[in-house]
Amino acid sequence: xxxxxxxxxxxxxxxxxxxxxxxxxxxxxxxxxxxxxxxxxxxxxxxxxxxxxxxxxxxxxxxxxxxxxxxxxxxxxxxxxxxxxxxxxxxxxxxxxxxxxxxxxxxxxxxxxxxxxxxxxxxxxxxxxxxxxxxxxxxxxxxxxxxxxxxxxxxxxxxxxxxxxxxxxxxxxxxxxxxxxxxxxxxxxxxxxxxxxxxxxxxxxxxxxxxxxxxxxxxxxxxxxxxxxxxxxxxxxxxxxxxxxxxxxxxxxxxxxxxxxxxxxxxxxxxxxxxxxxxxxxxxxxxxxxxxxxxxxxxxxxxxxxxxxxxxxxxxxxxxxxxxxxxxxxxxxxxxxxxxxxxxxxxxxxxxxxxxxxxxxxxxxxxxxxxxxxxxxxxxxxxxxxxxxxxxxxxxxxxxxxxxxxxxxxxxxxxxxxxxxxxxxxxxxx
Amino acid sequence: xxxxxxxxxxxxxxxxxxxxxxxxxxxxxxxxxxxxxxxxxxxxxxxxxxxxxxxxxxxxxxxxxxxxxxxxxxxxxxxxxxxxxxxxxxxxxxxxxxxxxxxxxxxxxxxxxxxxxxxxxxxxxxxxxxxxxxxxxxxxxxxxxxxxxxxxxxxxxxxxxxxxxxxxxxxxxxxxxxxxxxxxxxxxxxxxxxxxxxxxxxxxxxxxxxxxxxxxxxxxxxxxxxxxxxxxxxxxxxxxxxxxxxxxxxxxxxxxxxxxxxxxxxxxxxxxxxxxxxxxxxxxxxxxxxxxxxxxxxxxxxxxxxxxxxxxxxxxxxxxxxxxxxxxxxxxxxxxxxxxxxxxxxxxxxxxxxxxxxxxxxxxxxxxxxxxxxxxxxxxxxxxxxxxxxxxxxxxxxxxxxxxxxxxxxxx
Amino acid sequence: xxxxxxxxxxxxxxxxxxxxxxxxxxxxxxxxxxxxxxxxxxxxxxxxxxxxxxxxxxxxxxxxxxxxxxxxxxxxxxxxxxxxxxxxxxxxxxxxxxxxxxxxxxxxxxxxxxxxxxxxxxxxxxxxxxxxxxxxxxxxxxxxxxxxxxxxxxxxxxxxxxxxxxxxxxxxxxxxxxxxxxxxxxxxxxxxxxxxx
Amino acid sequence: xxxxxxxxxxxxxxxxxxxxxxxxxxxxxxxxxxxxxxxxxxxxxxxxxxxxxxxxxxxxxxxxxxxxxxxxxxxxxxxxxxxxxxxxxxxxxxxxxxxxxx
Lengths: 430, 412, 197, 102
Prior knowledge:
The complex is a heterotetramer.
Chain A: H1 3-6, H2 15-18, H3 21-53, H4 69-79, H5 90-106, H6 125-146, H7 150-181, H8 193-203, H9 214-229, H10 241-244, H11 254-279, H12 294-301, H13 303-321, H14 329-355, H15 363-394, H16 400-429
Helix pairs in contact in A: 3-11, 3-15, 4-11, 5-6, 5-11, 6-7, 6-11, 7-9, 7-16, 9-11, 9-16, 11-15, 13-14, 14-15
Chain C: H1 23-43, H2 47-67, H3 71-95, H4 99-103, H5 111-132, H6 138-141, H7 149-156, H8 159-168, H9 172-192
Helix pairs in contact in C: 1-2, 2-3
Chain D: H1 6-26, H2 30-55, H3 59-89
């Protein structure tokens, strides 16, 4: 194999830091595909979970338990006529979804799925993430404006005001966590995403528990602000369907509309990753400092395989419970096949966990470790995604002035106070 | 508030032929600059609106106007400076139809006015005609009427709660209320074969005897639904966002309510204890023990609480009625061809949305000379402008929801 | 499998990946984007189009900052300019009714004078560069990546910390003045946008 | 290919600066005039950062940050004035803004 492919094996750096453009491109491709698939899965999960919150079944027809529904939706949206209103600003109407999409996907370059499982590590990583994700709102704003219609315009105005106000609280909450990274011998913190997780590793504590309750408050502020930042319920003022019909994307349809949705879900995953990286220990498994015996490492490395085994079991149960009518034959076969695929993945992962159980430099061990990192990171993201759905099922929508009041009069002062108290606590402790 | 009804056009026969050619399909269209409008939209002296003023058409195709209501909003940013309701998109001429049908034939039509509480409509109409005929329904019929009407009140309030919560952004209560409303509709279906537009009552009593197991099913329903009401309240009553969205929103005083003729839960939430079931009892309501819940502030939250309390009171009434339902005939002696004596009658009942009145003029023939309906939705909608001025767009949605209108009844 | 296994990649070392690739190509691309965006800003009729062009310029300039090893300035550029200031611009453009402005003349009556003055200024700059070449020896102007690795590492390593130290050290006064300026700006903006002045 | 030197960056910055100046001098729309000022400030920043790279120290970058702060303040106040003006005079053209008091 050429040197530029093999030279990266065994490196503990990200491809960006190692200067290996080939693997950087591979990572970019993997992340792009992964995020797109995750968005589709999230689409299905949201419809399904929301339906079960609301005593409905949700999608059931396309594939077993509606598993293929996102694909059907994607095909339908892609084939739909692309309507641009005649009075709209053609070029901006065309380009607006792309702005949001680009911003949402660009941030993934610095998200660390593991100590070397990121495209690149920037020494301004967290600033880059916050900055680029704030560009995404430009897409929403110009989309609302370009539609040349009242409801989208109001949606765009709401969205821009909302983003600007919540970004402040969000940034301050992050800064208080960045302050915590400087609690080391040198007394210098870091803005690098990988560096932040490593700081938590070195200090032996997730920042959510650091200086309790300061870290928790900062996390809570971020968790609230990130819902507002991604325009999700109960802060979905920009697209409030009962007030503004659909807000900024009222005039959009087909593929362009689906790009907005893709950007929204990608942004949800991105902001969740920030929260996880900064407060919840990023790729670290639970209790890496307390349960540090190799046996514990082995037990935790079984988790990915066991998760897939559990999913396979659920699929098998679903197959068995399916009515034995000939109408369901295809669905049964599909679900059984899905269970088989899941079981195969589970089997492979378990084999890998056993093969790479000794923490040496063998390829299996490296692979096993990498899978562990990505698994724990993705699991934490999944929890956040579920929370997003849960919020949506539970809460009514805020009113715009109340949203502003919460942002400026509650979150901002609290985050400032947390920042100051964190600084004081840091000085006192060191 | 000026209610503007779109130009209906005259009926085809009294219009000259050439005029019909010119405007074959006259679209109900309104000139925004006509002098009646109090919004002074786009007057020639000031061609541009103020820097931040904006005119928005909410409806007639809008997800949250509960049908085809069109509200013209004049906004300053998001603040509402004034509203103007344009109604009539669902006008079917029910009152005119009434003049061309016999008394019995008109009975099903009234179900189509407030289609979510069809039983109450039928009850009001039947009682009005009975008063005109000077007959009285037998006691058993009255009890059945009360049971069905109160079940219908529950169904109507449940539908209101679901859609109102959906307007404010809480999706989940909608499905919970629809699940429970389904049980009521099942009872209706078993009783008279129809779920929505029931046509349950006849002039002089009830057409159908209760089916076997009716009482047991109603009692089961009572047991089933009481905890469900607690469930709705759990989701909403102490929900902080719900409180913020509904408290002090759309406040209306009792005096204003009375001045505008607003009735029903809206009136009671502003503190006036006025319920026709108590004030001028009809059917068998005088025999039951129940309370009239009232609010204090007349805001959206109080209206919510009043309706929730009314659902519980309805349960009480139904329980008493089911336990005390007498035996006996269900139809009074009514002639086959109903020909009331010459005269006029106004009879009103407490529909779920407020006072539903029927004014019927008889000229002694088999058809009414004139039927006029006093629909609660139509009258209550008058209060919209008063309630939303100075609030925000989101509040307009909340207030439209809280007034609880059904466009079929507003436009008739 | 032990999470402690992967240790911190030491950032003191100038890793090969930090060096930009194809410097001239990216420089010309970004410079071209920046200038094209700038031209469109002043040429386009519609203010929203101008704002989008300005965003292109700002992002291109951000790329140039990254090529100059100024990551923190680049991040601030994205965060403050592209995220904050441009959003404010778009917000205001949407608030003010630009329908009429879009139909008006774009340029004021003295535009030839302005254009001439601008061109004169550019000529002045160019002549200054040409004349001043002697002041800056080519050795210093050159930015080859290999010759001054140490310099680059100095710039990159601890960029943020060192800038923080500068701002708290020699530039404390300027820093405080800047915060005061922001306070004044906040007050000014709040008072200006009040309904009744 | 010619290696990229500081001079290249200076030329780009000069071009942006001149574009900004032309915009300020010729456009009528206040919003675009403010955007042109942003162009000028960016040109200055680019110069500062290029020189900072040339000398290998961070002073230029620190100054660039201060200029960004300045730009934010300028935009906030400038757009505030613009909105106040638009509310009263219903125009955003520079050459119609010719009274200090109205």
